[in-house]
Amino acid sequence: MRNLRATLIVLLMIISILPYECLAERYFYRRDVPRQRVSLGLTHLLPSAFIIPGGQFVLGTTMGLGLGNVMDVSTNLYLDFSQVFNFSAKASVFQSDLIAAAIFGSYASQSIKVQVADPTLASGIGNREVSSTAFGPGAMVSYRMMSPLLTGHSGIQFMLRSPDLPKSQVKPRTGLIQGHSLHQEFTYGVTPTVAISAGGSYDLTYDIWGVGPSVHIGGFQLGAHFFLNVSEGSVLPILGGSYTSQF
What we know:
Distance between the termini: 43 Å
Radius of gyration: 20 Å
Shape: globular
Number of strands: 13
Strand content: over 45%
Oligomer: single chain
Helix content: 10-25%
Number of helices: 3
Order of helices and strands: HHEEEHEEEEEEEEEE
Largest sheet: 13 strands, antiparallel
């Protein structure tokens, strides 16, 4: 069942990236009518396909800084306050009017409660804390869909954790521990300055589903991502300044 759900998510990501824009240009839109296009840089939980301009800060639940128009670095302050100390870096690899892509990597360090065999207890199972570090390389792509007001965003991230933490050992289930994950998001431009994003995620390692909305108003983003089948860390707030790239 788990493999079936992962397969369905991958198929959705592949289908959503088909070149709908070309069909829309040919059959649905009058070329003599000006159209406002929503920026490809507006996402929900995924990082933007564009880097923060050199010397510019982004501040909110995530704090970021652009480095020389080559890459940007950031940390999620909400996770830092939750004792998940983290750092991310991102570089843009391709940009056009119809599609943009980026690669990124993250590092996290945290203490995690795990269940282990303990013959001294009547239940035979005890709890202990372990110090865990994780490196997560990933990639994402943003693309235009049928309407100039609608964009799609697909991403994947792998998590290399030390020591390895099987799902059976992580109790209680928590949204603060990440494994290999898939993401699919969509953004719709309501007005030239207001856009709404929505996205879903699936953690392949810990079998955790997530879903949430965001609203972009000018240079600000407000939203949340909800992890549906966990007992702690179920809400990841999203708040702060955002950035866009216009072609």
